[in-house]
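Q: My labmate handed me this sequence with no annotations at all. I'd like to see what the chain might look like in three dimensions before we decide whether it's worth expressing. Could you predict it?
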Amino acid sequence: MTLISPTFLHHSLDKLKDDSHQFAARLNKADLSPFCQYDTSVGMEYEMQVAVIGSQENVDLPKTIRESSFFRNTEKRAARGDLHKSSLSALTEFLDYNESDIWENSWVRFEEDRLSHFAASVLAHDLLADKRFPDGHLRSDLDKFKISQNNTPYLRIPISYLLKIAFADILAPEAGLPDILIKSGTKLLHNFQSDNTSPEILSLTIPAAASGDRSLGTLAAGETARTFLVSQLLTQYANTHFGLSASGQHCIVYNAPHAPSRQKKLNELVPDGYYRHLFMSPCLSGWDKGEEKHKYMSLCHQTLSRSQLNAIGKLKDAGIITNNLVILPNTSNTCLANNGTHVSLGSTLLTRLAVDPKSGFTTGVEKYFGDLVIKIVEHFLPLFVNTYTAAPYRVNFADFHPEKVLGFLPHELDYTHLRMLWRRWKKKADIRFMGKPLTPFGPHKIDSLLARLLRLHGDLIPDFRLIDYFITLLSSESCPALNGMPGNQEQLKYELTEMGIFDSRMSMYLPYRMRAYKDMGYSGFEGRSYSLFPSFREDMAEAVDLQNLITAFAYKLVIQGEVQHRDIPDQPSVESERRQIFFGTAIGIPTVYIRTDSANGFLRSILTHVPSQRPSKRYKNYIRVQMHDYRLALLRYLTTRGTGIVEEFGAEKLLESLQERLIDPQLAAAGKIIAHATGILRGKRTAGKIPADMFNAATEKYYRTELKANQLQEGLAVLLADCMELEHVADCNLREVMKAIDPEISAHEYLRRVEKSVRMENASPATLRHMLHLCLAVCHYHNLRKK
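A: Here is what I predict for the chain of 787 residues:
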């Protein structure tokens, strides 16, 4: 770890302040505003859930487990008596009693000769140890992907890579695509990648709002629906063209925010190393050295698993665990199987200035302003949680142990706010007996019996993903993460590594993260707190517009000098104070506590808009704030302090809609998902009283079926509108694609003819290939127009 002298830091910070103030003065003089309505572009990264439907005799995951040395050794040890027979019986039960025949995150197997020549060449390149050297060695783990069945060469790949290889297959020159679309599609192959368990797809186009055009959020929602449609068409194409469905491996791809229940169960049955063997991505796509990236992701998994174990010590130090009766978390962790959507905003103005060495927008100034913008935006994140995205999850009483449900919060909040949040969470949960909260004792059978006798139901968490995943790193006393100094986050990561909380080789975890020009090629910010959008058109569009509005508002406050770093001090307690509201919203607790003499001047200014705050009777020198009132206060703050920018964006209706979501939970994302899940169960019980296994299975079924169908329909509607737009401008590439399909009809007529077969998932490979060619023509048009 490199040590920096305090004197050097002092002088560097003074110069950075001067440079930043001079740059802000230039922007103000020129009346330039970053992230204003027509300055912003948006790109997304989608993390999706996959599964294979089929019997255990046909699907790769159960076959791999049964054929593994781990399973054979477990059988031998159980037969010798070295291992309790329950360990083997639990694993065989997992394999034998899967009534749905759904195997989440399984790989697939199919005959290698089904690939087109072009797809086979893409595969050969991706199997190189270093893709920069086409004549170099192949990966050392090649035998994972190339196997033999019945003396026939087979491919064995994860579905994340299946999507890419299917896309490559439809680009084959013999498919009749114009050369320019083949070239454009080849570039888009890089957008299909995965370093975590789930597939990750980068948005196929980068929307940017123009004067008189639709809002940025509407464009982002359209792009998301379009990319989702492509994922569905590729999955259906692979199922038919590669013979997966015919061989008993029906693949599905859909949006789901947290690790599947069965995967969590399997995680408890197998060792840490074997879990990684089953589910860690091999990183075939997206990196020159895939094996090195795979090792890095294994490091991430080990680090997060270790970090969760280390959290127990913090819970003891915080006084939440008061004895040695604890349930040890698994040495393996499923949090990397959580899925969300990352929304990145880029400023055309800041990117242009970053290119110009005379503009004054140096990397130091970008960092100084960027950290302050992040601190401001973090105060507004509770507006997004549960309203636009959510991840409802039930926890039974028997599983309501602090060392399990608090997840990574001991590393994300300080002791004071962690204790406050846990006390309020216990009060909110259905675990009270004779007026006092009762937490489980430890033995699961006893706790389950106690829950039935006393009718203790545990809790329903509105956004479990934000609790189950390591969302942010808390600064230390000596290493602040957001004080504006270049290199501050690297210093913090080194210190947290020494404490066993993190690893310095991993990227910085923040719910709102700066995207620096020197690293990304644009200057902007990435929102990482989005879980599941029930609808792209209704929920995502508003969320992206609000993210753009708040980012523009925050940057305006910064460059006008209305908010400075000293207004939001870089102390762990101050970070924790604002982030407790974010996490409390995800949990669904109704109140939080803020110090009356809080050092956070910006937070104090927001609280002036909270009418019903009162001194806490329990905590001296704290005020008690209703979460509902705080979120409405954020709206009032925006409409009073940000009047000009709200008018510039035309965001009055957006804020009215947000207020309706905050007032009526049934209009919010969490309410919508919960209503659909309980509707599947067709019972009269409220969601909080439905057994956890039953409720969580219902949400997962909703994600796989109804939600997937609705979002597929949104994608088809967007493609139809896209084709009509391209027909209106007489796009030559669309015309060439339709010549190969059917020269007698228009693209939108063809879509109306075949869309039912796509929705019913019985379209022919030729139809699916044609649909994907239309999508490619649309993506090429939008990307070309942006340039």
